[in-house]
Amino acid sequence: MSFIDIMLGIYKGFGVTATVTLLGLLYAIPFALVAGVLQYYTTGFYRQCVTAMIEFWRSSSAIVLLYAFYYSLPAFGINLSAIAVGALVLGMNTGGYGSQSVRAALQALNRGQGEAGLALGLSRFDVLRLIELPQAIAAMIPTFINEGIQLIKGTSLVSLITLADMTFRAQQIAQLSYNPVGVYSGLLLSYLIICYPVTILGRRLEKSQQIKRKR
Amino acid sequence: MSCANAQSITERFLKEGRITVGIHNQPPYGYIDTDGELAGFGPEMVKAVLGPLGVKKVDFVIMDWGALIPSLVSRRIDAIATGMVITRERCKQVIFSNPNAMFGDAVLVRAGNPKNIHSFSDFAKNPSLRLGGVRNTSNVEDAIKAGIPTDRVLLFQTSQASIAALLAGRTDGDTQSVGTATRLVRDPNLKGKLELATPFVGLMENGKEVGLYDAIVFRPEDIRLRDVYNESLKKRKTEGAVKEVLIKNGFQASNVAPDDVTPKGLYDTCR
Q1: How close A171 gets to chain B, by Cα (Å)?
Q2: Which residues of A touch B190 (CB under 8 A)?
């Protein structure tokens, strides 16, 4: 098998890698925003609840969660498909990290900003919506792109719950003939080819935000 | 399908002719070949034995070796057909059909057999020798039962990884089933680097070398499906269909398991 054949074989799994990543983002982004804002916004008992939720997803190993959701839940009569489990676990795991960027970005704002808004007679929610979040989101973009890339690479774990993603395809090719150097350098290059454009996109987004802020 | 309303898979199988079978992508037992087609001894056995019973559709799912039994127990698949052999431990969780074939343990060594390895007991006796193998396989279990201390048995995720370790000198031998080992020795990319340790003596029990009996694995509640499989298997053995499948996958006629061997006869934990 030539190196090109190996690369083509690996990219047969691109659809699954892309699907898990995109579905994962559907969990990750809302969870990061909602949980991050709530952790910043609430106090006392409610804050503890939000923190517990974030910590469950952030502080457990993704592979352990994948196994638990895929192999243990059926024992309780809950049967989620491998794609559903992969997207949920990897997305929420990434969202858990993301929520901390959201909270940190909100906390980094000068307190005077919020106080000025309140002094103008805006409600607390309007202060968040009109003053705090627009500035915080601009500040979060670099870390969000970072976590997006982590999510893409993290999808290689779904090969362990029977999904035929790029890593799975690589392992399949590896079984046919002994060629670990060819197969794994092919896989390395395959992920690089996907992730690097995302990095470039991230840089562009960052720049456009900086220009906006300068105006 | 939840456990509460799950119809027995035997009923579903007999009515709809549909079954989901797990394999673990290891030539020659069950794998996807260069053309992307399903091949191997396990899938072909299932088709040869269940085909005459009116099976219309067999869905094959490829998974990690270690995930096969958990997937079967958690009802993600209905059977395993990928060269899994009957063991005392596995019988505590799942049930086995009567054996399709009988294999032995094999050990691969670097070309020229520099450490002069010819049995598991060579490893057990010499504290400087390390043995590699794939996690959870019966080959590794046999090696440990033969007296090799676990700190000198290195476990890997796939046969490719354990072969890489052998070639890199991290291990001195690598235990695989005969089928996998033979295929690896013939791999053009490994030519001249590896060989089978011959002659080789595996695990001895009561003065006899222990045989590995490959069978199809089912869930304990699907005992009727297992019995249906057994009936058909007996007929296919008489017809010579089992021998044909074995030879096609690089084994010999002598690998067909004798009719009188049953899981129950092998281990008291088996049903």
Answers
A1: 9
A2: 178
Tokens found for residue B88: 């005392």
CA dihedral B177, B214, B68, B226 (to 10 degrees): 180
pTM above 0.90, yes or no: no
ipTM of predicted complex: 0.72
Complete edge-to-edge strand list for the sheet that includes strand B79-80: B57-62, B18-23, B79-80, B217-218, B95-96
Q: Residue B110 forms beta bridges with which residues?
A: B194
CB–CB of A176 and B33 under 8 A? yes
Residue B155 phi, psi dihedral angles, 5° rounding: -105, 135
Best of B23, B64, B159, B194 to disrupt the A interface (most A CBs within 10 Å) is: B64
Task: Report pLDDT for B3.
Answer: 42
Q: What angle do CA A203, A188, A205 make, to 5 degrees?
A: 10
The model's pLDDT over A154-171, given as tens digits with 9 standing for 90+, comes to 999 998 888 889 999 998
Are the C-beta atoms of B93 and B69 separated by less than 8 Å?
yes
A17-34 per-position pLDDT tens digit: 999 999 999 999 999 999
Phi, psi of B127 (to 5 degrees): -65, -5
User: Alpha helices, DSSP H only, in chain A?
Assistant: 3-11, 14-41, 44-58, 62-67, 82-108, 111-119, 124-126, 133-154, 166-176, 180-214
Residue of A nearest to B4 (CA): A77
Name the strands in the sheet holding B153-156, side by side, starting at the edge strand that comes first in the sequence.
Answer: B153-156, B131-134, B173-177, B105-110, B194-196
What torsion, rounded to 10 degrees, do the Cα atoms B26, B32, B33, B38 define?
Answer: 120
Rounded to 10 degrees, the C-alpha dihedral B62/B68/B74/B77 comes to 40
All residues of chain A having their beta carbon less than 8 Å from the beta carbon of residue B187 are 177-178
Contact B67, B241 (CB under 8 A): no
Is residue B67 within 8 angstroms of chain A, CB to CB?
yes
Q: Residue A178 and residue B190: Cβ atoms within 8 Å?
A: yes
What length does chain B have? Answer: 271
Contact B163 A178 (CB under 8 A): yes
Kindly report the nearest CA distance between residue B150 and chain A, in angstroms: 25
Interchain contact B259–A (C-beta under 8 A): no
Please judge whether B74 and A71 are an interchain contact, meaning their C-beta atoms are less than 8 angstroms apart.
yes
- At A199 the pLDDT is 92
How many Å separate Cα B82 from the centre of its chain?
6
- The packing angle between helices A3-11 and A180-214, to 10°, is 60
Using a CB-CB distance cutoff of 8 angstroms, which residues of chain B are in contact with residue A72?
74
